[in-house]
Design a protein that fits this description.
427 residues; alpha/beta; 7-stranded mixed sheet; 4-stranded mixed sheet; 11 helices
Length: 427
Amino acid sequence: METIEAYLERKHEELRLINDCLRTPLPLTCPRSIAEVIRLKFQLTAALKAEHARYDWTVTETAWAHPGQRRIGPFEFSYDYQRADLEVRGPSFYELDERTSAETIYTASGMSAISALLLASTQVAGRADIVVLPGSYGETQELIESYVNHLRLVTLKPSLQATIDQTSSPRILLLDSCAPETAFRTALRATGQALDLLIFDTTGFCSGSGRIRSALVWARRRNVPVVMVRSHTKLDSLGAEYGRLGSAAFVRRGQDAAWAAGSKFRELPPAMRNAVRLLGGAALPAHFPPYTGTSAYRKLTNKRVAAMLRNGRRTARYFASVLPHLTAELHFAHGLYVTLNSRQPLSEASARRAAAEMSDDLGRTGLPIRHAGSFGFDFAATEWFHNSATDRYSVRVAVPDLPTALWDDVARAIARWWCTHERTVAA
């Protein structure tokens, strides 16, 4: 169990990594509290972004004032008008082995990445079935149903093979890190023989996660081409939300046959690049965190996510024990948040109100908790949550990177608050 002293020293390492990217690093001592960690991290990243604006004022959207290559940290960029032809050279956010590579297309957000990818698929394969896990990310399903009419949305049943064998159309599996753990495992137990493409939303997994490696091995054994889509705003900037950034990584391993001439989706990468251009969804170079890519960054990121996963497992067990009838889903594939339920059904508005009131009340007592619609912070983040499989609303508690003993205190405070207030929040 990590002590508060060891935790603050680890946070000092994170702060130093960010601070060292400044042209003139700021005086920095070891933080003395969680509140100071949070304040310093956001102040340093704000200073980095301000420094970029101050010194790189010649970097324009059309690149007219700065010929040649542009660099931000380990990343190098080249582009012409409106970044429609943006090329990025630099380290992968993923920890891939020496035989595996990825052709990566960066976009302005995670939703930009998957939107351009799915819209491009119509140019490559025409009509297709896309099999999704129950409880997958709601906005992705909304996108498919509303705007990607060439894809027939099929929700995963207990037997994936029986589901996708009903049609001769090309078949895509959307594997989502925010789906329930049981659904995720069911998908990976399937044979995959009838799949033509795996789209893997890795947003909730650490970039070096064993879950990612397992899914890539699963697909490689079945010769299924893989595209990993990701929002880098979540876990890839040491919890600071440095900038809106997404990507689609087309995975290859050696002389990989999955993207060879016989693949139905072999032309998907250039089709997606064209979709990004036409949709205006190219990434902004200023949103690439300059402190990524080093061994120190990967070590610190892995420690952060490991701490969140440990705290998440403890929270799921504790809430199941003390709130047996007041929880919704406790076991998501990524393990980074849990959801609270009410005896009376919650609406989106009442769930949002409950998340805000709980965060405000507990925050006033000095606990590190905020009402924020994301996860991966150094504080607990609460927000409303909609389960697309059950069409029910709940309150999401995103588990933070905090010392275990302190987080246990926060989890107990959340449980007490919910037991006291849940009858009134649904009103």
